[in-house]
């Protein structure tokens, strides 16, 4: 099966979950969780995550984001910049309330499939993608950033995959996305320590590509990146990118339901619930 078809194909079970209208947000029409605008100078689409206060990633946000990615694919956009509308936070990662306390199993299954779908669409997009990391990007926030092709970050924020210290093991498709950006040894160090790096450290190890001081500079640096493809036929660029990324994506597509079941079992374990519970409490207590 060719890769474009594989991208559209998923198991019958997965399709049933993704296509079902269950877990529809009642306020979806009222509040947009993902905004899209077009930079009139460059024709590039700017996609802003807009789930206040910290862009924690919920099932509804994933669904909306996937819809936006489908639109951008069919419009054959020149490129996309992913950023945040929240002050100081790009994304705080998965919404912990989707994981704790003891999530509803059906909802969690759907939540995980939509997280996978988001990664498949972003990591496998045909058009060039830039993450403008205009705030902290821990855990799932970092996953979004490393799924893009190029990363530009404002100073003094933190980025990394901080799962290990809270007793959670990142799935292999997350690990492999990191290994597509960093050499294996650096990726292992970052994952096993769970350390969050500041902007300068992230630049020094190659986790991000540029440091900028403001949005104007970010747009200029993004344009430099997009213009490197101006003389490359769109289709050849897209197929080449997918050629590089297809093994990881194909592996997940063939294993989606199992990956969701594995993670659900892990999340439902009393020890895991306890660890996430005390982590969440410490997050809330910080402000007291
Ligand atoms: C518990 C870990 C589970 C790990 C599961 C691993 C799965 C592996 C696979 C994939 C990888 C993805 C994993 C994840 O994304 S798990 C989520 C991990 N996220 C974090 O550890 C970040 C936590 N948040 C922060 O560190 C800070 O909030 C942040 C630096 C991002 C911003 O700080 P700031 O001071 O600006 O804001 P507050 O901390 O006051 O936050 C405002 C309110 O938002 C609540 N909050 C923050 N983050 C989350 C979240 N991820 N989910 C739900 N709610 C969140 C926070 O508690 C505040 O609420 P209150 O106003 O009610 O106090």
From TrEMBL:
Xref: InterPro entries: ClpP/crotonase-like_dom_sf (IPR029045), Enoyl-CoA_hydra/iso (IPR001753)
GO cellular component: mitochondrial matrix
Superkingdom in the source lineage: Eukaryota
Taxonomic lineage from the root: Eukaryota, Metazoa, Ecdysozoa, Arthropoda, Hexapoda
Keyword tags: Acetylation, Fatty acid metabolism, Isomerase, Lipid metabolism, Mitochondrion, Transit peptide
Gene Ontology molecular function terms on file: delta(3)-delta(2)-enoyl-CoA isomerase activity
Entry function: Key enzyme of fatty acid beta-oxidation. Able to isomerize both 3-cis (3Z) and 3-trans (3E) double bonds into the 2-trans (2E) form in a range of enoyl-CoA species, with a preference for (3Z)-enoyl-CoAs over (3E)-enoyl-CoAs. The catalytic efficiency of this enzyme is not affected by the fatty acyl chain length.
Pfam families the UniProt entry points to: ECH_1
Oligomer and partners: Homotrimer.
Pathway where this protein functions: Lipid metabolism; fatty acid beta-oxidation
UniProt keyword Isomerase, yes or no: yes
Organism name: Polypedilum vanderplanki (Sleeping chironomid midge)
Name the record gives this protein: Enoyl-CoA delta isomerase 1, mitochondrial
Catalyzed reactions: (3Z)-decenoyl-CoA = (2E)-decenoyl-CoA; (3Z)-dodecenoyl-CoA = (2E)-dodecenoyl-CoA; (2E)-tetradecenoyl-CoA = (3Z)-tetradecenoyl-CoA; (3Z)-octenoyl-CoA = (2E)-octenoyl-CoA
Keyword Protein biosynthesis: no
Protein localization: Mitochondrion matrix
Any one GO biological process: fatty acid beta-oxidation
